[in-house]
C-alpha cells in the first residue's frame, strides 16, 4: 500500500508560483520520484563519443616528393589483425598512423577479395625501407627458417663492422642470427615474415655463391618472366636443381633484380642455363613490356585518390602490372600481349585528358612568408584552393625551399599564383615587431571571449597581432603591418602592460576550505568589504574544487593588506598556529619533489597543513608551516626526518686541478663537462673568482655517480699534466708584437690552448728560439696559431689615409664601434693622430700672417708644402696590403656629408618636439645629425649631416614631416569653426539623453565638440558647437530636429492599478523599455510613497500617446483578470500531494521547516549528529 504525504498551502506557497492547481477528483497523486527526479550520477565521458582515430580519419600529410613507391601484400593467414569489421579503424589503423609518424612515409591500405591486405607505401627510399620493416614486424605474423652456407662465407654476410648484415636486415625486414666464430654450426637463423625470409635467404645464398670457387653463371631475364621459371611454389626451379645438380638463385618478387645466378659444376651450370633460356624464349613471345609518356607531376592525378582511378583498370586487367617511377615522365606497363593494347590505350586517354585540362606553375616566395600565406589553421591557403579550384603545395620549414607549386585548371593556376605573389609582395612592405610581454598578462590583454584585444584590433585595423600558443610558454607577441601603425600599436600595448604590471601583483593565500564561507560572509558582505577597502580583486576556488588557495590581485601593498585581513578571519575562527623550520636551502628542491609530490604527501598526512618554501635562489633556509597546532608539530617532524634522509644519501667528493686547466676541462660552451655530467649523473662545481681555493673542484651526487665522475676527471687532469716541451724559430723582429701590452697576445694563446707557456728570449739576447711548454695537443695547436700570426706580420704594410680631423669622431662612432668593426672585418690595425685643437695643443704652433704666438718672426722656418697633408689629418693603417686598401675604402665611406633643407621657421618647434623628442627620433631613425638654427636667427635653413647613403632618406623624411605639420595646421584652422544654437534649458536633458547617449551619438556622427552651458553661465540657453563648418551645421540641424520633435510632444496621466505596475515594467525594466521603443513615448511610474500610487504619466507625440495609453489599459485589464483567477485557485487548492515520499517509507518524519536543525542558517554553528536525514547525508 503506497503512502501519501501532503504539503500544506502555507509551507509550499512560495515555491508554487506558476504551477496549475490540480483538479479535485479521483486523480492519483504523482510519485515522489516522478515529481522530484534524482540527479544523474556523474560519469566520465565515454571514449566512444570521440571520433575514432585511424588511418582514414586522421589528417593525411601533404603530398611530398618521394623517391619510390612500393606495394606490400599481406595474405590473410599472415595478418596479425584479422577482424574484417574493424578494417580502417581499431588497432591496425593506430599502428599504421604510428608508422607514418615514425618514418615519415605515407601508407594507404586496401583489402583484396581474398581478405589479404595491400599496403602502398610512398616516400623517400630510407623512409619506405623503415616503414616496410615496421609493417612486417607489426602487421604480419613472424616465422623462422635456417639457411646453411660454408662457415668461411659467414664473414662476408656480416661485412665490415657488421654493415652488410645491418643493411640486409633493413632491406629484408628480418632478424638474422649468425653463429659465433667458435660455434661449429654453419646454419644461419632468419626470423621474420614469409616474404622477408625468402628475400633474406636469397641474398645470403647469393653472397655465398659469390664466394664459391665453383662455376658461376649469371643470366639476365626480365623480372616478369621469373614466375614462369620458378613455377608454382618454386616447384619448377626445384626440379631443375634436382635434375642438373646446380644451385639456381632466382630473386624473390619483392627484390627488383633481373639477374638469376646459377652455381655448380660447369656441365651442370651449362645444362641449367640452357633449360632456363628455353623456358624464357617460350614465354617471351606471349608477354609484352611497354611504356606511356606522362609528365611526372600528373602521376598522382592518374593514380587518383587512394588509387581509385588505377583500381578501375587493374580490376579489368589484373594480369597487367602498372609501375610509376618518381621523377620520370613515363609509366611502365607489363603483362600479356593481348591485354596490353587495351590498358595502354586507356592510360593514354587518361593522360591526354589530364594534359588538356591541367597545368602547373612554380613561384618563388621567401620561406619566412610561407606561414602567413597558409594563414591560421590553413584559412588563407584553403580559401585560395577553393576559390580557384587548384592544388597548392607549400614546402615545409625544414626544406627551406622558396618554390611553391600550384597545379590545376590553367586559368585557376594563373589567378592563384597572381594572388599569392600579391600577398607575398604586401608582406615584404610590412614591418614585423616583437613585443616582450610576460605570458601571465596575455589572457588579460585578450580579455573574456577576446573582447579587449578586439578593441585594440579595431583601433589599429591594419596591424595583425599574434599571441603565442599558451603551451609554448613564450613571452613574444608579434605585431605586423605598416611601420607607423605598428609603432603606434606597440606604444599602446606597452602602456596597457605597464598599467597591468602596476595592478597585476598577486598573492596566493592558503585558507582551510571550511572557513571559505566565513571569508565570503552573509550575502558576500565580508569579501565585498575587503575588496572595496583594499582596492583588490579576490578570487576564491569553486565550491566543488579541492583547492584551498585564495588569490588576491592588485597593487603589492594593497594585496598584503587584504592578505592580513583574510588570515585574521581564519585565526579568529580556529586554533591556527604558524611555525618556522630551518632547513638548508640546497635541500628544498629535493624535499618538494617532482611537481611537489613529496611536500604534498606530508600536507595530506598531517591534516592539510600548509607548508611554504622560500623562492628558489633566494638562499633563505626558513620553511613556514601553518595549520592546527597538533598537525603543525607532526608535519615539522616529518619534514626534518625527510631532510635528514636527503642529506645522508647525498655524496660529495673533491679534487684539485690547476686553474689554467679549468677552461680546458669545461670545454667550449661547456661541452666537455656536459658529457661527464650526462654519462655519470653527478653535478660538477668549479670555483668562482671569489673562492679562496681556486684549484678545488667539487663533485655532488650519489656515491656511485660521484665515483665515476671523479675517475673521468682525474684521467683528463692526468693527460693535461703530461707536459711536453717544443721549440720553434721566430724572427726577433716579431718578438715585440707577442710580448707587447704586457704579453696580451701570449695570454690569449695560453687561455685558448689549455695554459700553454710560451717563453721568448730576453731582450738583447739576439736569439730566435721560442720555447712552448704544455700538454702535447695544446702545444701543437698553439704553435700552429703562432705561425699564422707570423705569416700575417711578414706580409704587413703601412698605409696612410688622409681625412680631415673634424670628421674623425664621426668615423670612430659611439665608443669607437665603427672603427672596431673595420679593424675586426679587415684584420688591420688603425691608428688615429692626436687631436690638435690649436697652437700649443698637441703639435707645433700654426703660423698666421708671419706671426708666431703674437710676435714677429724675422727668419721664418723652412717653407711648408701647401699640398702636404696635416699630421692631424693622417690616419695610419697596418696589415696585409689588400686588407689595408679595403679598410681605407671603408674609412672614406664613413666621412659624413652635409646638406641643407628649407623648412618654414614657424614649423621648427614642432619638428623639434617636446623636449627634443621629435628631432631625436628622426636622428635615430635615419642615423644622421640634424641641426636646427637658434630661434633668434629666424632662419629657415635646417642642416643634415651624415653618411651619403643616409642623407636622401633623412631629407625625404624631414620634408614628409613638414607636409604632415602643414596639413595639421590647415586642419586645426578648419576644425576651429564655432557656432551657437539657442535651446530652451528644459530640453537640454532630452538632447543629452540617458547617460549622454544621444549627445554622444551626435558628437561621434558629426565629429564635433558640443558644449552645454555651466550652471553659473548667464546664457543658459546657448549650446556651442565646434568643428568643421559643414559638420557643425549638420550637428546644429540634428539638435534642432530633436527640439522641434520635443515641442510637438504632449504629456497625459492615466490611472493604472498599482498591482500590475511590476508586471508592466518587467524584469530589469525590460517590459517598459519595449513599450517605450515600440510607441516612441516616455513612461513615468510613481515613486514609492507617492500620493496617488496608480497615476502613470505618458509623454510623446499626440497620436503615439493615445496608442500607448490604449496598450497600457489593455495590459492592465489582462493582468488584473489573471490576478483574480490565481487568488480563486489558491483559495480552493488542497496543497501539492505526492506519493512514496522518503519520510513516509521509513520511520523518519517529514523535515520541520521551522527547525534550525533541519534548516540551519548560513554561518551558524551546527551540532554534530549521526541521525540519518531524508535529504541525504549532511555536509557541514
UniProtKB/TrEMBL annotation:
Residues 141-209, 213-281, 286-352, 357-425, 429-498, 503-571, 575-644, 649-718, 722-791, 795-896, 897-963, 975-1044, 1048-1117 form the K Homology domain. One of its GO terms (cellular component) is cytoplasm. It comes from the Eukaryota. GO terms for biological process: cholesterol metabolic process; lipid transport. Its main location: cytoplasm. InterPro entries: KH_dom, KH_dom_type_1, KH_dom_type_1_sf, KH_Vigilin_N. GO terms for molecular function: mRNA binding. Keywords: Acetylation, Cholesterol metabolism, Coiled coil, Cytoplasm, HDL, Lipid metabolism, Lipid transport, Nucleus, Phosphoprotein, Repeat, RNA-binding, Steroid metabolism, Sterol metabolism, Transport. Pfam families: KH_1, KH_Vigilin. Residues 15-51, 1143-1180 are annotated as: Disordered. It is found in: Cytoplasm; Nucleus. Residues 699-726 form a coiled coil. CDD domains: KH-I_Vigilin_rpt1 (cd22405), KH-I_Vigilin_rpt10 (cd22413), KH-I_Vigilin_rpt11 (cd22414), KH-I_Vigilin_rpt12 (cd22415), KH-I_Vigilin_rpt13 (cd22416), KH-I_Vigilin_rpt14 (cd22417), KH-I_Vigilin_rpt15 (cd22418), KH-I_Vigilin_rpt2 (cd22406). Appears to play a role in cell sterol metabolism. It may function to protect cells from over-accumulation of cholesterol. This is Vigilin. It comes from Oncorhynchus mykiss. The gene is hdlbpa.
Amino acid at each position: 500500500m503506497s503512502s501519501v504525504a501532503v504539503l500544506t498551502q502555507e509551507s509550499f506557497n512560495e515555491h508554487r508560483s506558476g504551477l496549475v492547481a490540480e483538479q479535485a477528483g479521483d486523480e492519483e497523486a504523482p510519485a515522489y520520484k516522478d515529481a522530484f527526479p534524482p540527479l544523474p550520477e556523474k560519469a566520465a565521458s565515454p571514449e566512444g563519443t570521440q571520433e575514432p582515430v585511424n588511418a582514414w580519419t586522421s589528417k593525411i600529410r601533404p603530398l611530398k616528393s618521394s623517391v619510390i613507391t612500393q606495394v606490400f601484400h599481406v595474405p590473410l593467414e599472415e595478418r596479425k589483425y584479422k577482424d574484417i569489421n574493424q578494417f580502417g579503424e581499431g588497432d591496425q589503423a593506430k599502428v599504421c598512423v604510428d608508422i607514418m609518424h615514425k618514418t615519415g612515409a605515407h601508407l594507404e591500405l586496401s583489402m583484396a577479395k581474398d581478405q589479404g591486405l595491400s599496403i602502398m607505401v610512398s616516400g623517400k627510399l630510407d623512409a619506405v625501407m623503415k616503414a616496410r620493416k615496421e609493417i612486417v614486424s607489426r602487421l604480419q605474423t613472424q616465422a623462422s627458417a635456417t639457411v646453411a652456407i660454408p662457415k668461411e662465407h659467414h664473414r662476408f654476410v656480416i661485412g665490415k663492422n657488421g654493415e652488410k648484415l645491418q643493411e640486409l636486415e633493413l632491406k629484408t625486414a628480418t632478424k638474422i642470427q649468425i653463429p659465433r666464430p667458435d660455434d661449429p654450426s654453419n646454419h644461419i637463423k632468419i626470423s621474420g615474415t614469409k616474404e622477408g625470409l625468402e628475400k633474406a635467404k636469397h641474398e645470403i645464398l647469393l653472397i655465398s655463391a659469390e664466394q664459391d670457387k665453383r662455376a658461376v653463371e649469371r643470366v639476365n631475364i626480365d623480372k616478369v618472366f621469373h614466375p614462369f621459371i620458378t613455377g608454382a611454389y618454386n616447384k619448377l626451379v626445384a626440379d631443375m636443381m634436382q635434375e642438373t645438380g646446380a644451385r639456381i638463385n632466382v630473386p624473390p618478387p619483392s627484390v627488383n633484380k633481373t639477374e638469376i645466378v646459377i652455381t655448380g659444376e660447369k656441365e651442370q651450370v651449362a645444362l641449367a642455363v640452357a633449360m632456363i633460356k628455353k623456358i624464357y624464349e617460350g614465354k617471351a613471345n606471349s608477354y609484352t613490356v611497354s611504356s606511356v609518356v606522362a609528365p611526372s607531376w600528373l602521376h598522382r592525378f592518374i593514380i587518383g585518390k587512394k588509387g581509385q582511378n588505377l583500381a578501375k583498370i587493374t580490376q579489368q586487367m589484373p594480369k597487367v602490372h602498372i609501375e610509376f617511377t618518381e621523377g620520370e615522365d613515363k609509366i611502365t606497363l607489363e603483362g600479356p600481349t593481348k591485354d596490353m593494347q587495351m590498358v595502354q590505350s586507356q592510360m593514354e586517354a587518361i593522360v591526354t585528358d589530364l594534359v588538356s585540362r591541367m597545368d602547373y606553375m612554380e613561384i618563388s616566395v621567401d620561406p619566412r612568408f610561407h606561414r602567413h600565406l597558409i594563414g591560421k589553421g590553413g584559412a588563407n591557403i584553403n580559401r585560395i584552393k577553393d576559390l580557384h579550384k587548384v592544388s597548392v603545395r607549400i614546402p615545409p620549414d625544414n626544406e627551406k625551399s622558396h618554390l611553391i607549386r600550384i597545379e590545376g585548371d590553367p586559368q585557376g593556376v594563373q589567378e592563384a599564383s597572381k594572388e599569392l605573389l600579391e600577398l607575398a609582395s604586401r608582406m615584404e612592405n610590412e614591418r614585423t615587431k616583437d613585443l616582450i610581454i610576460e605570458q601571465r598578462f596575455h589572457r588579460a590583454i585578450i580579455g573574456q571571449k577576446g573582447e579587449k584585444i578586439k578593441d585594440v584590433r579595431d583601433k589599429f585595423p591594419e596591424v595583425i597581432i599574434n599571441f603565442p600558443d599558451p603551451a609554448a610558454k613564450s613571452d613574444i607577441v608579434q605585431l605586423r603591418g605598416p611601420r607607423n601603425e605598428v609603432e603606434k600599436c606597440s606604444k599602446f600595448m606597452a602602456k596597457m602592460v605597464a598599467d597591468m604590471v602596476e595592478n597585476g601583483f598577486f598573492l596566493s593565500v592558503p585558507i582551510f576550505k571550511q572557513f571559505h564561507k566565513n571569508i565570503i560572509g552573509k550575502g558576500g558582505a565580508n569579501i565585498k568589504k575587503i575588496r572595496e577597502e583594499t582596492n583588490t580583486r579576490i578570487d576564491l576556488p569553486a565550491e566543488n574544487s579541492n583547492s584551498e588557495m585564495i588569490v588576491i590581485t592588485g597593487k603589492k601593498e594593497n594585496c598584503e593588506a587584504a592578505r592580513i585581513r583574510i588570515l585574521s578571519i581564519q585565526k579568529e575562527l580556529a586554533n591556527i598556529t604558524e611555525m618556522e623550520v630551518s632547513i638548508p636551502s640546497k635541500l628544498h628542491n629535493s624535499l618538494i619533489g617532482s611537481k611537489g609530490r613529496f611536500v604534498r604527501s606530508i600536507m595530506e598526512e598531517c591534516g592539510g597543513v600548509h607548508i611554504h618554501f622560500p623562492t628558489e635562489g633566494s638562499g633563505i633556509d626558513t620553511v613556514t608551516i601553518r595549520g592546527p597546532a597538533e598537525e603543525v608539530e607532526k608535519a615539522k617532524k616529518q619534514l626534518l626526518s625527510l631532510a635528514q634522509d636527503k642529506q645522508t644519501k647525498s655524496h660529495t667528493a673533491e679534487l684539485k686541478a690547476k686553474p689554467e686547466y679549468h677552461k680546458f676541462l669545461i670545454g667550449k660552451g661547456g661541452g666537455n663537462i656536459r658529457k661527464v655530467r650526462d654519462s655519470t649523473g653527478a653535478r660538477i662545481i668549479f670555483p668562482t673568482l671569489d673562492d679562496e681555493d681556486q684549484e678545488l673542484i667539487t663533485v655532488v651526487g650519489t656515491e656511485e655517480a660521484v665515483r665515476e665522475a671523479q675517475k673521468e676527471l682525474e684521467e683528463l687532469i692526468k693527460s693535461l699534466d703530461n707536459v711536453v716541451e717544443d721549440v720553434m724559430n721566430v724572427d726577433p723582429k716579431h718578438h715585440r708584437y707577442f710580448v707587447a701590452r704586457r704579453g696580451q697576445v701570449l695570454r690569449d694563446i695560453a687561455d685558448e690552448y689549455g695554459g700553454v707557456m710560451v717563453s721568448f728570449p730576453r731582450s738583447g739576447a739576439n736569439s730566435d728560439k721560442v720555447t712552448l711548454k704544455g700538454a702535447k695537443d695544446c702545444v701543437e695547436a698553439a704553435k700552429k696559431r703562432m705561425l699564422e700570426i707570423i705569416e700575417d706580420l711578414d706580409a704587413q704594410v703601412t698605409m696612410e689615409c688622409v681625412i680631415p680631423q673634424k670628421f674623425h669622431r664621426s668615423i670612430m662612432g659611439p665608443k669607437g664601434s665603427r672603427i672596431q668593426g673595420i679593424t675586426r672585418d679587415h684584420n688591420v690595425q688603425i691608428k688615429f693622430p692626436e687631436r690638435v685643437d690649436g697652437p700649443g695643443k698637441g703639435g707645433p704652433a700654426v703660423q698666421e700672417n708671419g706671426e708666431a704666438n703674437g710676435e714677429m718672426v724675422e727668419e721664418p722656418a723652412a717653407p711648408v708644402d701647401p699640398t702636404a697633408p696635416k699630421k692631424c689629418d693622417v690616419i695610419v693603417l697596418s696589415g696585409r696590403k689588400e686588407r689595408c686598401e679595403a679598410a681605407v675604402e671603408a674609412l672614406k665611406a664613413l666621412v659624413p656629408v652635409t646638406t641643407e633643407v628649407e623648412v618654414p621657421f614657424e614649423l621648427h618647434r614642432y619638428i623639434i618636439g617636446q623636449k627634443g623628442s621629435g628631432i631625436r627620433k628622426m636622428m635615430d631613425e635615419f642615423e644622421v645629425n640634424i641641426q636646427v638654427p637658434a630661434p633668434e636667427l629666424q632662419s629657415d635653413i635646417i642642416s643634415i649631416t651624415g653618411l651619403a647613403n643616409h642623407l636622401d632618406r633623412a631629407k625625404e623624411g624631414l620634408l614628409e614631416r613638414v607636409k604632415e605639420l602643414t596639413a595639421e595646421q590647415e586642419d586645426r584652422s578648419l576644425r576651429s569653426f564655432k557656432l551657437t544654437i539657442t535651446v530652451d534649458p528644459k530640453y537640454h536633458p532630452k538632447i543629452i539623453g540617458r547617460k549622454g547617449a544621444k549627445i554622444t551619438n551626435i558628437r561621434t556622427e558629426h565629429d564635433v565638440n558640443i558644449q552645454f552651458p555651466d550652471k553659473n553661465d548667464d546664457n543658459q540657453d546657448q549650446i556651442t558647437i565646434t568643428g568643421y563648418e559643414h559638420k557643425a551645421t549638420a550637428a546644429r540641424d540634428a539638435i534642432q530636429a530633436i527640439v522641434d520633435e520635443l515641442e510637438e510632444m504632449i504629456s497625459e496621466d492615466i490611472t493604472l492599478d498599482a498591482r500590475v505596475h511590476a508586471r508592466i515594467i518587467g524584469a530589469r525594466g525590460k517590459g517598459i523599455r519595449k513599450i517605450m521603443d515600440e510607441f516612441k513615448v516616455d513612461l513615468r511610474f510613481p515613486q514609492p510613497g507617492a500620493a496617488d500610487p496608480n497615476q502613470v504619466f505618458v509623454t510623446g507625440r499626440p497620436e503615439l500617446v493615445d496608442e500607448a495609453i490604449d496598450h497600457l489599459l489593455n495590459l492592465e485589464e489582462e493582468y488584473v483578470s489573471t490576478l483574480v483567477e490565481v487568488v480563486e485557485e489558491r483559495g480552493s487548492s488542497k496543497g501539492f500531494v505526492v506519493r512514496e515520499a522518503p519520510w513516509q517509507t521509513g520511520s523518519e518524519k517529514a523535515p520541520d521547516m521551522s527547525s534550525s536543525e533541519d534548516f540551519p542558517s548560513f554561518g551558524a554553528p551546527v551540532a554534530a549528529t549521526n541521525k540519518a536525514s531524508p535529504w541525504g547525508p549532511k555536509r557541514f
